[in-house]
Structures are given as C-alpha cells and as structure tokens.
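Sample intake sheet
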Amino acid sequence: MVQANRLRSGSMIIFDGELCRIMSVTHLTPGNLRAMVQAKMRTLKSGTQFEHRFRATENVETAFLEEHEMQYLYDDGEVYHLMNTETFEQIAMNHEMFGDAIKYILPNQNVKVTFYDGSPVGIDLPQTVVLKVLEAEPSVKKQTATGSYKKCKVETGIEVQVPAFVDVGDSIKINTDTGEYLERA
C-alpha cells in the first residue's frame, strides 16, 4: 500500500480489482478543502482509460510486478513468441501488449517483459536501438549535413528522417521513445 500523493506516472496499481497503469497525476489543493490527487489511469486488461480522484492520504494498493529478461523469437501472425533467457521457457504475447514496440525489435533481440501474477502484461524497450539502413533516398551533392534530412527505411520496416550523409548499409541509433535518429553507430 502507498499513499495516493506518492503515485507517479508509470506506476502500476490495483483499482477495483483491475491492474491499472497510471498515465498522469495532478495534485490538487483547492482553497480550504483537503488535498486531492487526480489520476488518469488505463486498465491493462481492457485498455480503457479513465480518471479517478483520490484523497491525498488515501491508501492505494500497488501491484507486485516481476521483470524477466526474454528473447523475442518470432511472430506467427496472431501472437509474438518469446523465450526466458534463464529458464528457456517460452511464452506467447498478443499484439496489443507489444503495441508500437515491435517496430524496434528484431528476432533474437532481448527485451524486459513485465509479469503480474505469472502472466505477461507489457514490455520495456531499451532507450535506444541500433538498426541497419536498407533503403535511403539519394543525397544531393553540396547539401550541408546540418540543414537537410531525408527518409530512410531500416530493417524493421519503419521510416526514419536522417541526415543526408547516411547511406544504405549504415547502422543508425534510434530513440525508441520518439522514433528519431540520434547518430550513426
């Protein structure tokens, strides 16, 4: 249990018997009334998003989560298959649990999978990934490296805006939060 005024975005709590992720938290202190915490939450099972107002001193049940290092194996069209790197146990996760994260993951790459009551509930990507450029627009001579960007396609299939000096075959570092080019690797 934790007091509501200690909730932070990204926290996982049990609310009305459902596992919920805190999306945002606003602390309110209206005039001569008691302090409150307005929390925007999303249930992990159904994906519905809602808001709830807690008293600042109200106790909220936190979820006990486990994290395991797992290796992404393949996609069979319906689910993604992963393997625990310690026990070699394999699990299947549906596409909704991965979301946009699959855009940055290649087969045989390790990710951290979050479990609640023995079931996977989400994954954590590294802050940056290194991917190889498969297609790139041709660069025009006499363009400055700082002022012009072009589209390129990396090995996972996503398109990224890169500086003119990046060519096919280069490896680039991409920020997984924003999807932006950081540097050549």
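Comment: The chain has three domains: 2-62, 66-124, 128-184. Residues 66-124 form a domain with the OB fold (Dihydrolipoamide Acetyltransferase, E2P) fold (CATH 2.40.50.140).
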